[in-house]
């Protein structure tokens, strides 16, 4: 008699790299006989793949752990693991703060997960947060279980920028780029499984410099090689630092049709004083000129970004400068956050804390402007023709949902639509977060 498969529940917090990592962990555990489940009550193991970027994200892990207590009491051999950036940053402190946790695995050690699971239990609570010399990716190739038209592919990890507010250089370590050939192989494997669109991931993805045929490959060179993979229709990459936006990458945006016209390029602030205090190493003007060059190469480029309000020392004038920059760039969409001091980062000890009410008011004002820009970008699509890659059925009979070239959700009713179909669509209506359209031809 064969044993019933064990059930694994994974909860993923934070960025797309965690989504990618969760998939790799699920694959590693499936080799150990674990099947994924959405149902915590049915799980033999629960894994929290955590995020440390802001205080709220990190604290959520502990409240979610508290919520797992009744499940552990009902099923004492339920194993609970904490993975990801909180695991990397806090290590065995997590075991002290929560008696429910059986194992802790940092983001660089996922290939060791099956071994840690086997060791955990009967009082053993293994912790693995080293930055090992071996390449975890060699142990965790992307082998999607089901066909999906879009996939993430990690090409670079870590960050050497040390923005004063950010934990990433500490949790994800120094910048490391994967060899080009391994990425191309992984991409071909994804395409064979039906993937049409690949988003290249890295904390600082445009700083990619990997070993490739003939020497060092830039991200642009990698993109151009990927564009030659038959069956791969769309390429995106995220997330980037303005100072690594090299000429060949800008040129690729003008020359490579498979490279999609949507770019997430965080600036964080529009004030030179604050940019300097943040250690961003560029001015607002340099960022604006850079985007002019990008738009000269690809005029329809949809810009996206990240903003932090309430960084220590931020005055009304600094905030006004950020609003001016946003008006100048005109974002298609953007993310914005209230500054959250992170232990171990230089800004955590900075003077000039901005009172919470002021930071809240600034965040509201900034988000109102970004929402207005997003709404305008959405309604400007009405009447235009756009490529849409369909992903799943919509809520209405006969309706399908996909993503436009500009990463907008588009709803279409039509014959012959299915996941993975790439079609030309005329946009007929817009809402703040989605578009509606009809098939052309
Ligand atoms: N406080 C607030 N926002 C932060 N980010 C990173 N660190 C912090 C912090 N300490 C934001 C930045 C970054 C995005 C991923 O998260 O805007 O680009
Ligand atoms: Fe963090 Fe991005 Fe700055 Fe690196 S470049 S320190 S990941 S905000």
Automatic annotation (TrEMBL):
What is the reaction catalyzed?
N(6)-dimethylallyladenosine(37) in tRNA + (sulfur carrier)-SH + AH2 + 2 S-adenosyl-L-methionine = 2-methylsulfanyl-N(6)-dimethylallyladenosine(37) in tRNA + (sulfur carrier)-H + 5'-deoxyadenosine + L-methionine + A + S-adenosyl-L-homocysteine + 2 H(+)
PROSITE patterns for the chain? MTTASE_N (PS51449), MTTASE_RADICAL (PS01278), RADICAL_SAM (PS51918), TRAM (PS50926)
Binding positions for [4Fe-4S] cluster 2 per the UniProt entry: 159, 163, 166
* Coarse class of the protein's main subcellular location: cytoplasm
| Residues where [4Fe-4S] cluster 1 binds | 15, 51, 85
Q: What is its EC number?
A: 2.8.4.3
Protein name in the entry:
tRNA-2-methylthio-N(6)-dimethylallyladenosine synthase
The answer to keyword Membrane applying to this record is: no
What high-level taxonomic lineage is stated for the organism? Bacteria, Pseudomonadati, Pseudomonadota, Alphaproteobacteria, Rhodobacterales
Q: Which cofactor does it need?
A: [4Fe-4S] cluster
Instruction: State the encoding gene.
Output: miaB
Where along the sequence do coiled-coil regions lie?
none
Signal sequence span per UniProt?
none
UniProt-listed HAMAP family: tRNA_metthiotr_MiaB (MF_01864)
């Amino acid at each position: 008699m064969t044993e019933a498969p064990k059930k694994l529940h994974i909860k993923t917090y934070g960025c797309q790299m965690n989504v990618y990592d969760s998939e790799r962990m699920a694959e590693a555990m499936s080799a150990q006989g674990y099947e994924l489940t959405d149902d915590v009550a049915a799980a033999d193991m629960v894994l929290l793949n955590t995020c440390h970027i802001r205080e709220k994200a990190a604290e959520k892990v502990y409240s979610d752990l508290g919520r797992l207590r009744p499940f552990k009491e009902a099923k004492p051999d339920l194993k609970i693991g904490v993975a990801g950036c909180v695991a990397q940053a806090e290590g065995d402190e997590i075991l002290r703060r929560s008696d429910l946790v059986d194992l802790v695995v940092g983001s660089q050690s996922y290939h060791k997960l099956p071994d840690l699971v086997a060791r955990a239990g009967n009082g053993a609570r293994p912790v693995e947060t080293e930055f090992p010399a071996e390449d975890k990716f060699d142990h965790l190739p992307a082998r999607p279980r089901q066909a999906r038209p879009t996939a993430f592919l990690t090409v670079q990890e870590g960050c050497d920028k040390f923005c004063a507010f950010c934990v990433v250089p500490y949790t994800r370590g120094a910048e490391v780029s994967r060899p080009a050939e391994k990425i191309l192989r992984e991409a071909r494997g994804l395409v064979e499984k039906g993937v049409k669109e690949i988003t290249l991931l890295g904390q600082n993805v445009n700083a990619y410099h990997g070993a490739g045929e003939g020497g060092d490959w830039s991200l642009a060179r990698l993109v151009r090689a990927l564009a030659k993979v038959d069956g791969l229709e769309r390429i995106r990459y995220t997330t980037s630092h303005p100072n690594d936006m090299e000429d060949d990458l800008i040129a690729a945006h003008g020359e490579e049709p498979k490279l999609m016209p949507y770019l997430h390029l965080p600036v964080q602030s529009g004030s030179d004083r604050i940019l300097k205090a943040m250690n961003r190493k560029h001015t607002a003007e340099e960022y604006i000129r850079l985007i002019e060059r990008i738009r000269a190469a690809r005029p329809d480029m949809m810009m996206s970004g990240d903003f932090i309000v309430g960084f220590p020392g931020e005055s009304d004038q600094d905030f006004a400068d950020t609003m001016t920059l946003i008006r100048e760039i005109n974002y298609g969409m953007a993310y914005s956050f209230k500054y959250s001091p992170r232990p171990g980062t230089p800004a955590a000890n900075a003077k000039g804390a901005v009172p919470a009410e002021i930071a809240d008011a600034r965040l509201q004002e900034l988000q109102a402007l970004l929402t207005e820009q997003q709404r305008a970008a959405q309604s400007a699509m009405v009447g235009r023709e756009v490529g849409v890659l369909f992903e799943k059925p919509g809520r209405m009979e006969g309706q399908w949902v996909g993503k436009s070239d500009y990463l907008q959700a588009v709803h279409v009713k039509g014959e012959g639509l299915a996941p993975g179909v790439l079609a030309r669509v005329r946009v007929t209506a817009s809402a703040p977060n989605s578009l509606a359209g009809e098939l052309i031809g």
